[in-house]
Design goal:
The complex is a heterodimer of chains A (about 220) and B (about 375). Chain A is an all-alpha fold and about 220 residues long. Chain A is about 65% helix and about 0% strand. Chain A is globular and about 50 Å long. Chain B has a five-stranded mixed beta sheet with strand order 1-8-7-3-4, with no helix packed on it. Chain B is elongated. Chain B: It is a lipid-anchor; GPI-anchor.
């Protein structure tokens, strides 16, 4: 995470460190454990739910920001200044990601995005917006927990922040109003794109974890179905 | 050195004179091509002839009336498409061909219609275009694709002239794509552009090979199977969901079923004996829009072979007629009482195979014998 003094994302990044110290979800060791399949399905369902929630939340928030942010044709250049985790990835690289990396990237992305969203919530002007954002943050927290659960079931460690990257926060010149709104715009856009990507990521994981179809068919025939 | 210079000079003058002579006195090798706008007026001069030269004009070999002439020039007013052709002017007395014009009447291009679609997600997308009204003259199109500030190559389709293909390099991009097209012809120029996100243009091709079959011994069932479109490159990682619609041919109202996976479905509420029309559409599970409807499949549910009717009623079956527990189809419009039931052979207790009136008569006879009245 690139931290620059005066960067609004940098100021919020220090708050992100709180998240890193979340206790890791203990691996549940039940007898007759169905494996990671059901929890992957649950995670997939959560991404769909969140994507649906985000659509109405983003619409409301962009209207609050006003034009040009709420115009459908708005197509600003993406200056590299923001420190948001980017969902975009080379097609072949994405295909060949191993399960651990795939899950880790999702977990890290949503950790950062949640932190930034909480910062957004602090600045939001209307109570209604704050309520919607808070609700969304809670749901997003749930998604993080779900991904952590899948990783724990599969035996992957949760990503920890590297030592020495703890930010030293020095207050700097505040972002202009317009630039702040641009940051908000890209945050929502990136969040939406990540949710689409996660659906595809978890689809891929689901297919890999599924029992072979042939075994299921044989089971049915044995019962004279 | 002094001697060759005047000689070269003379040769040059002779050559120039020859060219001038040829231009004034011999016909042009190739006609002059000219494009003019529909509805406009045009004046065609007879090459380099004087205004008062005596000439005759012909179009595609047919003489033109002298009233169209203004001196040696041909005047055409209110050009129509029929005015297109090969115009030739001849020296009136010698019939010497002076000048030829190949005239094309057309229009400048209007704003083109451009659309892009990804039926091969995540491999890429294609864009296709057309002009809303014809120009009647040749047009050239130029397509550019921008992803942010990066220019992407749009490869021409090998078969279709108005289509080109773009390959995705990156997936899950937050930056929009901008596709611009410019069209120009001899009479004008136009352009348009569209901007879109990667996800919004995803629209698969319709499912293929939709087959509907009756289910033996089941007069209200139809088994439908189909295949994912062959153009969808990766159904494993990018699964499709399906939408099925069906109706009997005689009704206008469709029934709908949405299916989240699998490429088969059994309809269980078909009206017995009626021919059905069935279609399927596909959509990526999460993004984009529904495909067009597939080619329709037709099928009629299984019906029992008609048995030869005997002259006597069959009492064994009529006494159990009132114990039928199957609900009839939802509307009585096309429901014959004789079609109720889904049993197979004659031993099925719920099968009613005689008209209701006979059953009632038999029941009345039974009742009276039991001294109910």
């Amino acid at each position: 995470m690139d931290l620059r003094a005066g960067d609004s994302w940098g100021m919020l990044a220090c708050l992100c460190t709180v998240l890193w110290h979340l206790p890791a979800v203990p691996a549940l060791n039940r007898t007759g454990d169905p494996g990671p399949g059901p929890s992957i399905q649950k995670t997939y369902d959560l991404t769909r739910y969140l994507e649906h929630q985000l659509r109405s939340l983003a619409g409301t928030y962009l209207n609050y920001l006003g034009p040009p942010f709420n115009e459908p044709d708005f197509n600003p250049p993406r200056l590299g200044a923001d420190t948001l985790p980017r969902a975009t990835v080379n097609l072949e690289v994405w295909r060949s990601l191993n399960d651990k990396l795939r899950l880790t990237q999702n977990y890290e992305a949503y950790s950062h995005l949640l932190c930034y969203l909480r910062g957004l919530n602090r600045q939001a002007a209307t109570a209604e917006l704050r309520r919607s954002l808070a609700h969304f943050c809670t749901s997003l927290q749930g998604l993080l927990g779900s991904i952590a659960g899948v990783m724990a079931t599969l035996g992957y460690p949760l990503p920890q922040p590297l030592p020495g990257t703890e930010p030293t926060w020095t207050p700097g010149p505040a972002h202009s109003d317009f630039l702040q709104k641009m940051d908000d715009f890209w945050l929502l856009k990136e969040l939406q794109t990540w949710l689409w990507r996660s659906a595809k990521d978890f689809n891929r994981l689901k297919k890999k974890m599924q029992p072979p179809a042939a075994a299921v068919t044989l089971h049915l025939e044995a019962h004279g179905f | 050195m002094a001697a060759p210079v005047p000689w070269a000079c003379c040769a040059l003058l002779a050559a120039a004179a020859a060219v001038v002579y040829a231009q004034r006195h011999s016909p042009q090798e190739t006609p002059h091509v000219q494009y003019e706008r529909l509805g406009s007026d045009v004046t065609l001069p007879c090459g380099t002839a004087n205004w008062d030269a005596a000439v005759t004009w012909r179009v595609n070999g047919t003489d033109l009336a002298p009233n169209l002439l203004n001196g040696s020039q041909l005047m055409l007013r209110g050009l129509e498409l029929g005015h297109s052709g090969l115009y030739a002017c001849f020296h009136r007395d010698s019939w010497h061909l002076r000048h030829q014009v190949l005239l094309h009447v057309g229009l400048p291009p209007r704003e083109p219609v451009l659309s892009c679609r990804s039926n091969t997600y995540p491999k890429g997308f294609y864009c296709s275009w057309h002009l809303p009204t014809p120009t009647y003259i040749p047009n050239t199109f130029n397509v550019t694709v921008l992803h942010g500030s990066k220019i992407m190559v749009c490869e021409k389709d090998p078969a279709l002239k108005n289509r080109c293909h773009i390959r995705y390099m990156h997936l899950f991009s937050t930056i929009k794509y901008k596709v611009s097209i410019s069209v120009s012809n001899a009479l004008g120029h136009n352009a348009t552009a569209i901007t879109f996100d990667e996800f919004t243009i995803v629209k698969p091709d319709p499912p293929e090979n939709v087959v509907a079959r009756p289910v033996p011994s089941n007069p209200r069932r139809l088994e439908v199977t189909w295949q994912t479109p062959s153009t969808w490159p990766d159904p494993e990682s990018f699964p499709l969901k399906f939408f099925l619609r069906y109706r009997p041919l005689i009704l206008d109202q469709w029934q709908h079923v949405e299916l989240s996976d699998g490429t088969a479905h059994t309809i269980t509420d078909a009206y017995a004996g009626k021919e059905y029309i069935i279609q399927v559409a596909a959509k990526d599970n999460e993004i984009g829009t529904w495909s067009d409807w597939s080619v329709a499949a037709h099928a009629t549910p299984w019906t029992e072979e008609p048995r030869h009717l005997t002259t006597e009623a069959q009492p064994a079956e009529t006494t159990t007629s009132t114990t039928s527990s199957l609900a009839p189809p939802p509307t009585t419009k096309i429901c014959d009482p004789g079609e109720l039931g889904s049993g197979g052979g004659p031993s099925a207790p719920f099968l009613i195979s005689v008209p209701v009136t006979l059953a009632l008569a038999a029941a009345a006879a039974t009742a009276s014998s039991l001294l109910i009245w």
